[in-house]
Structures are given as structure tokens and as C-alpha cells.
């Protein structure tokens, strides 16, 4: 490919996104510089559009590139599948087809991801803020799949060092939550194909050999049989990504699935045919070469071939074969060839979609056959007059009238004496680790008691309800601990209750549940205190609740504090909205400090970022409706009212304006500390800048 193809992509970006992408922050730069920034943002929008199809206007709105983008340029959140998806894009444009992406960019990108995972949303710029409610909603449905997309205007592969660093960073995230983060690379070829559609995909004509082949002729023509690993490796070697034109785009190819495929080919190649789901290829036409008798070996000429299911299998076969030719050469795999010659329009797309969206059998499905689960279902009905759903696909009961095997497993893992099970349960949305035989047996026990199961579910629900209430007034690490740590907190609360009669029908469990609100509040404080003390205040909350070693250490530390009967510590003031407001209000006036020091240049445009969960809920749509509402210009000459609000051109103090904005957005009229909500892009909040001035001048923050 050449600069000509770069030109095609440039023109598409200009045609699609001119006038749609926010370039207001680039006004002071030269026209050439602005245009380069526009092309980079347009590339980010195009990448987000490729991953999550949408209109050009929506794609443009997904771009938040600029100061305080934290190493990321665009975002898309999707709730349309069983598992929510968050796509984060980093784009690098190059007129010369040499879009650079080095180790520094890798570190920035993963730092931005970590800020998001820690729910430190205030570090991101105003263009990012409208997506925060969607991110929170995605987590409400369970841990989302997070795709980091490198949108690079280049053809050359990433350097080995960069690829290795990405894999290391990706592995660090996936050690905490299995298969949570994936990394994709979109390059010039991918953007070219996306712009031109199928006409940009290379037409591949090739010959294949099928052993023991069979055929279908009604209603459409198809062949099926076995191909050898060497033949498939040769096919990939010759055509590479073009072989997947109708299916996937480039990735780093380091998924857990691919690793298992390669492991099977290296260690048990003779079993590969039995373990693999096979490969499906669409072809414009299929023609036999010579005499082809069903049941024998057949050779076929394929025109316009594309792998639409099994792309991971093909690429992993190639990797395994090149790494260990001797072992892998004995592998064989089932292949289907479907001819589109006489098929109706759109049939190929249907095949592509359906073969990639069928529900796989999960380990949980086998557990539904366990006699212990069947007995539980019967006991729920007979003894509790409630429903217990054990099979996927069955209608879930109203919470008051029952629960599912999944909810029961979560609750029992949380109340188990072994805190490790709570971490195992938090690693995967489908509780994959809990369904492993040894964990399953420990979670449910040999004969699960219906009263303990249901009461454990009630406890988990009550803990979650209390944590949700607390989260309304929490930010940053405390919010993250309350969100991610539901099973950890439940475990600690359970161990502080009188549970000796939990499996007794006559137990007064209601009296124990009445203790939960106070226990949850104290448990959360002790948990956060333990995490901060054991692992530091910059450690990841998510690691503490999903790593088996860390969760045991945190539980031990928190329970020691409980047993000491010390009063639970108040949460760090930076973690609570109310105390942040009060503490900041007592400090020397930030505006006076900043003006006296001339810290902020006259005419600097500031941006507003909602601070708390209620504010994000109440104000996000209001701010999006008129972007001027989130901006104000600073003046050092305006005394106590240094902010000229872009929405009405009037002058306000930071706190007065923040209070007015929330009232206009939601009708809530409450005292608000504006200096922690108004930011100088690229530098920090007014409160942070004032603190920096005081420290620089040797004046520690003091109370009046």
C-alpha cells in the first residue's frame, strides 16, 4: 500500500467528520497543526465506528482527545450483548504512513485504563465526562470486556519491545480479572477496507484438500471434511489477514483461547480434531479438481474464500506449526466450505453472524445436572415456597420469590470461611472459576442446605443495597471499594453475625439482617484502611478483591481491627464528598491564593467536571445539551468572582457557579465546593493548583 491509500483514508475522514469533531481547543494553533489534530481525531472516530458501528455524528462525539485525555482518544460503550463492552481508542495519524506508537504511549494508555478502573473519572477532560454514566452502567451488568484499540496510520508491525510491553500490561490486568482486557491493532489496511467495504478486501483464490469429504447440495452447495495442520498453516502463510476479510481485524493474537489451541497442538496433536469446533469458510464458488468421490480425499479450487468462523483457530495453528513443526504436523481439523453461488443476498452475512454468536456450553451448565442442585430446587419449592433456577435460559424469578444458581453461588462464595472463593467469584462475570469442580464442591458443600443458601442470598442482597446507598456520598477509591468489594464486605459482615443457626428453619435471620447497615459501614472503612495500609493508597482496589492472596490478607487485617473493638476509622476526607466539601471550605481561599500568585493566565478557559455520583446522574445530560455550560473563562481582575460562565457571560465564584449549575440541572440547591470541580486542562483543579502554590511558598494548608 502507499501514500495513495493514506489519501483515501484522509479524504474519508474529511468527508465524514468535518464540522462534527470538536476542535475548539485547537483554535490557537496554526491551520496545518489543527488539520493534523483533526485527522488524528478523525482516525480515532473511525476506529470507534469500526468497533461499534454508528453514524458519523455519533462517532465524532465519542472523541475526547486533547488535554487530560490520559493517553486515550475515543470511547464507545455497548450494552447490546450478554456482556457489556467498553472500547478505548488511541490514534496516531501520519501523512507518511508511519504512525508512531512506542513504549511511552503504551504506558500512557494503560495508565488511562487504570484511572478508569479506579473510578478516578475526575482526571479526564470534559469531553470524557458524558461517558461516565455509561461506564458505570456497564459495570452494573458485570465486568465489561474492555478493548484497547491502537488506531495507527501505518503498515509496519509494532516493534517487538512494544508488543512485549503491551502483552505484559495486558497480562497484569487479566491476572486480576480473567480475559477482561484485549488489545487490537487497526492499521492502514484495516481503515482502507473499512472505508471501501468488501471491495477493498483481497479476493483470494486457492486450492485445498479435504480428507474423507462429504457434501451438501440442498438448499445450497457445501463441502466438509478434514484438513491437515500443515495445509492450513501454508494457507495462512500465503494470505495472512486477507483470509479473514469478512470476519476479524488484526489483533495481538494473545488470547487465552489461542494459547490453549497452541498447547493442544504441541502436546496432543492427535486429539486436536476432537477438541476443536472446526473452521467455516465462505467461497464465491467451489469447483472439484479431477475426480472427487465422497468419503475419499478431494481437491477443490476455491474462489473468493474467507474464513468467517475459526479465525483464532487458523492463526493459532500457524503459530503452533511455526513454533514446533514436528509436534503440530500431526494435527487435523474439521473444515466446512460453503459456496455462495446460488445463495440469496445476505446469506453469507447471516452465516458469519450466526456461526460467531452461538452460545457455548459452560461448566455451569453441567452443574445444573448435579443431584444437589436438583434437591435445592425442590427444597426451595417445598420448604420456602420460592423458585430456584438452575438452567441458563430459564426465566429468573422476582427477587422476593427466589434466585438463580448463579446468585446462590456468589452468596455462598462470599460467606465461605475461605475468603479465596470470594476473589474467585469476582474474576469472571459467569463465575467460571467457581464452577471448577474443587471450587464448586467447596462452595456448595456435599449437601447444600436450602435455608443457608437463601439466607446467604438475602445477606448479599442487603450488603449490596447498603453499599449502593453509601456510594452516593463516596468518590474515587472508596467508591471503587464499595463497588468492587461487595463480596469481600459480605464475607466480613457474615463473620461478624451470629450464623450458628443459619441452616435452622427456626433461626431469627431477620434480627441478624437488621445489624447489616452498621456492619457494612464499618466493614467498608476497615477494608479500605486495610488495603491502603497493606498495599498503599495508590494500589488498585480491583486487585485487592479479585486476587486470592490479597483478599485473604485484607480480610485478616480488617477482622483484626474489628476484633480489637476499635472504632472504625473515618474514611479519608478525599474519599467522601461531604468531608471534601467541608475540609476544602476551611482552607485558605483557593481563589485568593491563585490570583495573588498569578498562577492562572488571564483568559484561560476552565472546564467543569461533576464530582460525585449524584452529580453525574443529575447533570450529565444537561451539560451535554449545551457544551458552553461546562466552560468558563478565568480572570485575575475580577476579585472573588473570577469565572465568566460561557452559558450566560456573567461572572461567578467557582462555588457559586457550581451551586447554580446543579440547581439549574436538577433543582438541587446545596452548598458546593466549586474549586474541586473546576479544572485548568492539563494542570488540575483549582483546589490542586492552590495547594501547589501554598506548598511552593512554604505555607502548609491551614484551617481558619
Give an overview of the whole structure.
The protein has 704 residues and is an alpha+beta fold. Helices cover 48% and strands 14% of the residues. It is built from 31 helices and 19 strands. The strands form four sheets. Strands 8-9-5-6-11-7-10 form a seven-stranded mixed beta sheet, with helices on both faces. A hairpin with a 5-residue loop joins strand 16 and strand 17. Helix 21 crosses helix 24 and helix 22 runs parallel beside helix 26 (548-563). The longest helix is centred in the middle third of the chain and has 22 residues, at 450-471. It starts with a helix and ends in an 8-residue tail after the last helix. Residues 248-256 have low confidence and may be disordered.
Number of helices: 31
Report the major sheet.
7 strands, mixed
How many strands in all? 19
Kindly, what is the distance between the CA atoms of the first and last residues, rounded to a whole number of angstroms? 67 Å
Radius of gyration over alpha carbons?
Answer: 29 Å
Structural class, from helix and strand content? alpha+beta
Mean pLDDT, as a whole number?
Answer: 85
- Beta content comes to 5-15%
Percent in helix: 40-55%
Shape: flat
Widest β-sheet, arrangement of strands: 8-9-5-6-11-7-10
> Which stretches are low in confidence, meaning pLDDT under 50 for 5 or more residues running?
248-256
